[in-house]
Amino acid sequence: MGERESVEREEMGLHIPFYPLPEEIQQMERSETVCQYCGVSYLILHEFQLLQDRLAQVERELQNQSGATERERAKRELLELGREEWERALREEIQRGATEKEKVLREEHEKRFKEKRFLNEEIEKMSEERWRVLKEKLHQANTHLEEQREDLHQLEERLKCVGLERDMTEGLLCKERELCQQLRERCVGQQQALTATLSLLRCSREELRDVQGFLSQLTGAWEDCSSQLLKRIRESYSVLREELRSVCVELQRIRTERENVEQKLIAQSRKTEELVNQQTHTQREQRDKLLSLSQELREKEEGWLSCQCRCDSLQSQLLACQQREEEATRKYSGAEQEVDALRRKLEHAQQKSKDLRRDSERMMESHRKALTKMEDDYRQELPFKLQAALEEQRTQNAVRLKEQEEELKREAGLELVIDREKSRELLLQYQREKEQLLLQYQREKEQWQRKVTVAVL
After folding, report:
1. 3-class state of residue 41 by DSSP
2. Nearest residue to 336 (alpha-carbon basis) of 77, 59, 143, 68
3. Around Cβ 211, how many Cβ atoms within 10 Å?
4. I need a surface site. Which of 23, 89, 130, 248 has the fewest CB within 10 A?
5. What are phi and psi of 18, to 5 degrees?
6. Which of 220-229, 329-338, 353-362, 419-428 has the highest mean pLDDT?
7. pLDDT the model gives residue 350
8. Facing residues of 41 across strands?
9. Under a CB-based contact definition with an 8 Å cutoff, are residues 62 and 54 in contact?
10. Which pTM was predicted?
11. Is 457 helix (H, G, I), strand (E, B) or coil?
12. Angle, vertex CA 39, rays to CA 37 and CA 42, nearest 5
């Protein structure tokens, strides 16, 4: 309610006009501007009277100017005669200057054209000679490059052969290493067997004495065999080492040769690049000369065009003066029409202002009513909307929690099943390994018993 009262007070208050009255009307007394009987102001009548006075002054000025137009016409005729004579003199002078400049420009153009031809011929001769020399040098460089490529191809083939030989030697070394490992494993197995026999033979001293002699014989034979094998392995290892050294020396020699060849190729490529750079530098110099000559020709052509443009500009200025005079006459005739149009526009503007004030008042009232209705509806609908939104969020959260619980249960069940299967597989593997170990132990025990019986017999 307080807001409505403040708005109504503002509307009922006085408003300062956008366009205040002139000082002459403001200085008038109230008896001259307001009717003493009804209280209506005569300001509009005063404004109309002022407009009529101004129209009368404008008409007088137009009459005075109409007399001056005749004088201006006589002066214009004299000016036109002088202008025509001046234009003739200007044209003659411009034609003379243009003919002289054309002659000079033609002579200079012919001289430059001859110089340009001479320079082009010399440039073509120099370029042909240099092109021939460069072709010969490029042909020589290409032949040298082909020879070097053949040498590189041969070196690559040699390197491939050396690599194959190296692979063969590495394969032989791997095989010998595998044999050594097998022999070591056999030695370890035999040592384990000997320890087992000693533990068994300690029970009976008499059997051990007989078996000790047999074991001494076996150890002697084993030492002889091991010494022979070690000698053979050392001999083969020394031979392979010498072969590897020779192969490494050849590889180093090939690498040095390859580096020398690469350095030669780099030097030749640098020479070719220098030759190409020299050729490009000369071509650039020639192009710069041609561009400078062409720029000079363009500058002279532009000077000739500027003279023509000046002549055209003088003609355009004369036409502009004539057009300005015609426009001045048109403006005098259009001023009267504008005054009548202004009167009509003032009346139309006053009517529009009244209509707009009425429409604005109606729109303000309708807008206030709509705002009040919207506020009341919004206050009534807010609590219902909040309750509905909260219930929807609660239902969605409950559904999400149920889905997450089901997913967690499924994942836990799958992990338990996987762990059980893994534990079963591990138990089966342990059982199989245990059975295999027992079988091996029984077999080895039977073999040693047989050996002992054979040795006793």
Report:
1. strand
2. 59
3. 20
4. 23
5. -70, -35
6. 419-428
7. 65
8. 34
9. no
10. 0.20
11. coil
12. 105
Q: CB-based contacts of 306: which residues, under 8 Å, 6+ apart?
A: none
Q: What is the mean pLDDT of residues 212-217?
A: 62
Asked if residue 130 lies in contact with residue 282, where contact means CB atoms within 8 angstroms, the answer is yes
- Planar angle of CA 185, 191, 195, nearest 5 degrees: 145
Q: Which two tokens stand for residue 277?
A: 């750079």
Contact at 8 Å (CB) between 151 and 258? no
- Assess whether pLDDT exceeds 70 at residue 82: yes
What are 34's strand-pairing partners?
41
Q: Which of 77-81, 173-177, 373-377 has the highest mean pLDDT?
A: 77-81
Q: Which residue has the tokens 């002549």?
A: 311
Q: In the predicted model, what is the mean pLDDT of residues 203-214?
A: 58
Using a 10 angstrom Cβ sphere, with 0-12 exposed, 13-18 middle and 19 or more buried, the burial of residue 119 is: middle
User: Residue 191: CB partners within 8 Å, gap ≥ 6?
Assistant: none
Give 297's contacts (C-beta < 8 A, 6+ positions apart): 109, 112
Residues 6 or more apart whose Cβ sits within 8 Å of residue 166: 244, 247
What is the maximum alpha-carbon separation in the chain?
172
Distance CA 26, CA 29 (A): 8
3-state secondary structure at position 203: coil
Report residue 345: phi and psi, to 5°: -65, -35
Q: For the chain, how are helix, strand and coil distributed in percent, rounded to 5? A: 95, 0, 5
